[in-house]
Sequence to fold (733 residues):
Amino acid sequence: MTMTTRHPQGEAIAASTRWQAQSENSESQKQPLDKIFGADVFDTRSMRKRLTRETFEALERAMDGRERLSAQDADVVAKAMKDWAVERGATHFTHWFQPMTGLTAEKHDALLTPDGEGHLVSKLSGKSLIQGEPDASSFPSGGLRATFEARGYTAWDVSSPAFLLRGANYATLCIPTAFVSWNGEALDKKTPLLRSIEALSTQAMRILKIFGTDEGVRTVGSSLGAEQEYFLVDRNLFYARPDLVSCDRTLFGATPPKHQQLDDHYFGSIPPRVLSFMSEAEEELARLGIPVQTRHNEVAPGQYEFAPLFESTNIACDHQALTMETIKRVAGRYGFAAILHEKPFAGMNGSGKHNNWSLSTDTGVNLLDPQDETHTNLQFMTFVCAVMRAVHLHGDVLRATIASASNDHRLGANEAPPAIISMFLGDMLTDLIGQLETGTPSRTIKGGELDLGANALPALKRDSGDRNRTSPLAFTGNKFEFRAVGSAASVAWPNTVINTIVSESLDFIADEFERVGGEHPSGEGRDLAVKQILARIITEHKAVLFDGDGYTEEWEVEAEKRGLPNLRSTADALPVLNEPKVRTMFAKYGVLTNDELESRVEIFREKYASQMRIEAEQMVVIARTMILPAVCQHQRNLAETVASTEGAGVDCPELRDELDGFVGLVGQLREATIILTEAGVPPGLDSQETCRFFRDSVIPIMDAVRSISDRLEGLVEASLWPLPTYSELLTLR
Ligand code: ADP
Ligand code: MG
Fold:
């Protein structure tokens, strides 16, 4: 039987039916995850197996950042890597990098070259492993280069392992690289991240020296576990919505009667088709050595989450980019489209990317682990105070770091952290901070046990404090969770910034200690000096601590009294990055030069403006070519009904009123659409003024167009409405 529908929903169902048939057959084919974990990664184990001891050790030194790899060793490593890849079916290699826009970039070169005698031989030289030269002119540089200055280099990042990306008929060896201009200026997200990791290590080591815990420690790194939220919708419905296709969010759509009010989706049972998708995505991620730990439904219908096990930040950032791409790629195979946008559906929860960040030594010690008797752990308190000072001094920078057109829809809305950056420490740490401010801490609040009142249930170990889900930056046990990061964002930039601002505070503390505590390098004298420094930091910076409900208006008022900035939109937030104190900091720690930082801000602004322009234009197109024709048809039907009813000699004043009201609303939509069409950016505005123009003069009109259209959606005959509705999109079959 063929069904005719106004959307290709029939197809969507068919796709899921195909999925069912396929899934019933493939149950037995699933391989255990531990067998395939890391199978597509040229990891330490594969390297050790394929390299001589000397070369492997040289490579290890390069991976730890102690020494650069020599040209001879690079040749040997390249050959081993190439053999490993070719044995696994690779035909091409690529320098894989993360440009300033988009997720990742790759340009493939063949691993096989003719040998001059009619055969192909495989080849990868040390030189092509270490350095590549993609044409840089098509990537945004934010004014660092003119378009004709095309030269750019990719440089192998030894610390992140090479891997294979596979698909039907292909396997490509991907070599993680940094991407810089001919002058060596960073054109990507990785270069400043690596620089910030080194800065952090240098400063954190100074703190360890103070406490005499640096023995055997070579480096301190940051660790990262980034939880990824996303939506899944039926692929065919996705493609029936031009707004989803070009903006990854719905520009129109009335809230359906039932969405997330009953809280029945969060942690609910995962629909089988989704679970099959998740399993396959996990399998692909496992092959890439990406340890996915958690999967569950999120708050909104159609919303889900993947959380990995944490890793060192550089690798975690590469893995996060791969995770986003894998989610998108695998979703298609199950008849889904994955949406990573922060707010695809108005009126429903948006998606974030909780950025779990901690500090640990290369010997495996988590420096943010409070341990049992926390009040005796002065080193831990030093790191916590450093983060607190950093967040108070640079909350505006953190806010700017997560600013984007898409995240603007989420921050400050009712399910996401507010745009005010504050910090939550929980009962135990708050108590400890209070003790430390006024003297020597003498107690650690304990959580104790929970008796559930039935012997069949175990006594539970209770945490020493509750959680706070409204805080943008929360201490969660042994790490800080930065919750304001957007689901579509790369995590490299937020972590670059966290590392940099924390480096600055660690540097400050180490300097202070050298100034006042130098004469007591150890023992009680040292502790006293440190406590005095920390007490002062607490007094000066405790205004950033907030344990209450961050969603309330009272908090906005209170935060203003405390002098905490509330930068509501991207246009408000981005200028922070060009402030002298911020430039000085990035330059001082060698993370970004003034030019590099300025160019980045320029790129962020251009990206914001382009995205807004696309959305506004897309909105006009949908209003004119889909919604207005549909509502005119409905208007005609109404008018004909009125005419024929009255023609039959029956009065129908209610129908006439309805027609009247409807015609009025259609008129409003037409008028608002015309205003939006004419709301072009006036000539002569610079990039910051352009952002402000969108904020003040375009977004309000877009809101008006949408709200009129959403009212019409509730009035028009269902079969005439030209876009799949929220109910249709959010119900997975
Ligand atoms: P929560 O219950 O607070 O969400 P989980 O233990 O479930 O905490 O972890 C959430 C995320 O935090 C996971 O991705 C996890 O790997 C990550 N995480 C845990 N410990 C650390 C750490 N020391 N550094 C960075 N991320 C961490
Ligand atoms: Mg979490």
In short: The pocket of adenosine-5'-diphosphate (ligand 1) is lined by residues 223-225, 227, 307-310, 356-358, 366, 476, 478-479 (CB under 6 Å). Confidence is low (pLDDT under 50) at residues 1-5.
